[in-house]
Amino acid sequence: MKASRAFVTWAVNDAIERGELTTDTDVATLVEMLVAVMWGMGFYAGYVGGHDELSIIVDTLEKLLANKLWTITG
Fold first, then answer.
1. CA atoms of 61 and 12, how far apart (whole Å)
2. Which alpha helices (DSSP H) does the chain contain, by range?
3. Is the pLDDT of residue 7 over 90?
């Protein structure tokens, strides 16, 4: 868990430095949310679904994080 948090913290801080995230990002909260997603996907892969299902889920998560699933109107 410590290594996961350290890696995600590095990635989030790097994204802030590159301008991909706003400078007012709550790093600690975002890191915990991303670690929870990673652990949840790991649980799913190990106990619920198989490799094929996980590949589709990872692809969809990548689209969600890249803002490629939303269609906001109005």
1. 17
2. 2-17, 27-43, 51-65
3. yes
